[in-house]
From TrEMBL:
Highest classification ranks of the organism: Eukaryota, Fungi, Dikarya, Basidiomycota, Agaricomycotina
Annotated ranges, domain Heterokaryon incompatibility: 94-185
PANTHER family on file: HET DOMAIN-CONTAINING PROTEIN
Any Pfam family the entry gives: HET
Designated name of the protein: Heterokaryon incompatibility domain-containing protein
Amino acid sequence: MKISPQVSRVSSIRSVATEYEVSQVIRRVIFEILETAPTRLLHTQTGTLCDRDAQISHFISGPQYKQLLSSALSYDPVERACHIHTTVSRCFRFVMFSHRWGEGEPCLHDIQGRAIYDMPQSGGIKKLQKFCLTALRQGYPWAWSDTCCIDKTSSAELQEAIGSMFGWYRRSHLTIVYLADVAESGSLCSSQWFRRGWTLQELLAPDTILFYTRNWSLYKNIESSNHKTNDAILEELTRATGIASWFFANFSPGVDDARSRLQWASSRRTTRPEDIAYSLFGIFDLHLPILYGESVEFALGRLLGEVISQSGDISILDW
């Protein structure tokens, strides 16, 4: 009778300690996963813009965290680590948005501290709402759009985002491409999306893409988890871009075959002339300073100089 309370207290202490250790492992995994994800993401369920602290808070205060904490205690250490990583990865999956900018696109300061679902359905806000709802219906908790998830008034943040963007598209679980100028019965090849500079990396980087038409229906109603695996769409993509179909599933960033990569971009345009060079940094896996205000000739000169330096291929100068 005298020993029983002591045994009970020891067991309780061990239980609390184990739960604490598991919670610390979960936190470490969260930080590890978020380290390579965009800094800000839209929460698809609430429509709010969240920084990393808010993303973590959403998860820890929700039922999935409590379930994970409880279930992880029943695993041995090796299985526990795998179980935690798998679960946390699933809870922080994000969708990237690729689209041609139009009028009235919301910036970060337009939506910060507000729920986009409560904002008037007009212009860029309506498009953003549709994107987030589409991601939510696909089962993804987080979404990213270049219109509002970057603080473009911060040169340091803009530099980091441009340098990281190819990797974000590559690590996304899905990239949603919205073709605002393609009707339900229209052709993918006619879209101006294929004439823009930044969309080249947004086409090549992701493993998984779904194309949506003007009314937010799947292109040609092709029900698929990935349009990059559909032969008919791959043929259209090749016609629209001049890029061989195998690149869409097997593209690796780098300076190999640099001349072809430059030719893919040669017919594309950007709003700011120097962006035609910056939009290729990810495709060539280059990390160069972003110097808005420089001439397009200087920006391309820096790009070509670095490609030649790494590849030794001077034939790219006649691309």
